[in-house]
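Standup notes, structure subgroup. Blocker cleared on the zinc ion input:
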Amino acid sequence: MSDPALDLLRRVFGHPGFRGEQRQIVDHVAGGGDALVLMPTGGGKSLCYQLPALLRDGCALVVSPLIALMQDQVEALRQLGVRAAFLNSTLDANAAADVERQLLAGELDLLYVAPERLLTNRFLSLLDRARIALFAIDEAHCVSQWGHDFRPEYRQLTVLHERWPDVPRIALTATADAPTRREIAERLALEDARQFVSSFDRPNLRYRIVHKDGGGVRQLLDFLDAHRGESGIVYAFSRKRVETVAEQLQAAGINALPYHAGMDASLRAQNQRRFLQQDGIVMVATIAFGMGIDKPDVRFVAHVDLPKSIEGYYQETGRAGRDGEAAEVWLSYGLGDVVNLRQLIQQGEAGEERKRLELRKLDALLGYCESTQCRRQSLLGWFGEAHGGACGNCDNCLDPPRSWDGTQAARKALSCVYRTGQRFGAGHIIDVLRGVATDKVKQWNHETLSTWAIGSDLDERQWRGVFRQLVAGGLLEADIEHHGALRLTALSGPVLKGEIELRFRHEPEKPARGRRTRGG
Ligand code: ADP
Ligand code: ZN
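Run returned:
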């Protein structure tokens, strides 16, 4: 029996069979249906529109926001003998005119185009004269304000559906938390499209989160000890931090290279090339690194600072273990990270609504970090996916956290924040609680407060844990205008009055060692 889709998959792409839901998606779109495809990075989204493009008459229009990815895809397709081209700002007028001519002459199977170009009146009327096989909207989360990559042009893509109601549309993304998914369907008028939701689970990744002790670099070195000679990525908060962490790793004899958008372009490209081609390079990078990096044997991804959201964390950690072999993802964070990130959001240029949204995302991530639940379960839960039982491959499963009744400690902490005037960071408040007579304490006469030395039962690390968890739980907030001074929130009242019981995670006796993760 003839099976044109499978024939093409084998003959053109050289794959023996379909993966996951590719078969159903290809059949649905090739048959003229609309689809919304949620598949993790590396899942094989491209084939879901490339095969229907070859199966249907005419040229498929692929909307893609990233010029570099567009060019890579077109290059790869051409090598397979597929008639593909792109239109974006890198082409000069002659080259662009040539592509347009090919489109009208029916000489193209796939045309990748940047949204701003597609949406020009000129290009839309050009399309009126072409034969269109389908529209593929890649990185569809760009339409969502909730998503991490909002592109206003994506909002106008509904024009495609209005102008060509009979042409099938397929929107694809690897970002699939429920709010983004709803917004994509709504904004792209894809409510009636069939949704294909793949599992986002990456069973070969082991998740681990530790609390920062100082800058976190010593803990990072311990973690890297278990990964000697392996390729991996270390994500850091800022360009400056990338530089210093890379230097510290180099000084410790690790083959580390920096990567961030502020570096000289040729050095950056060179570092990227080395990471891809050589074994055992540790790339210390901002999140500018990784988009479109397809290196299968990345054995670990470490966040030495807190990322911005659960989606970001998932994307970045997803670059580990693409080959399916065991890989480890590790994150260290502390109260300082929360302050830094809040500051970044609040001092950013986004509007108020956007800022509130980003703060909420940060809170969701903090909740995830402090949770005692299986990491995989809570991560997948965030993407609306149930995971049967605990995974046995994350820190909370392997090393179940103990918790303690923190009600009294929380009351002491909050009342000390209040007594000292809600103008100090955790360090000073902890000194007051523990009765440490520093110069600052004397300067402010804080030995005379009723909360002086009422917390000598806990050591400094334990108190840091209390403050971190109070901030993560929204019971205290860091005032960005005043250098991270801690302030009470609407939620603090019931705790102060003893109306709420709180449980906290035990702080590990020693900072968790990466080495321990090896044996399980
Ligand atoms: P995504 O866009 O979802 O991140 P890609 O479309 O780039 O993923 O595919 C990821 C990798 O998986 C590519 O190297 C691709 O060749 C490979 N791949 C996709 N589908 C199949 C398949 N059916 N069989 C084998 N390999 C596949
Ligand atoms: Zn688990």
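Discussed briefly. The longest helix spans residues 352-370.
Next: hand off to the docking folks.
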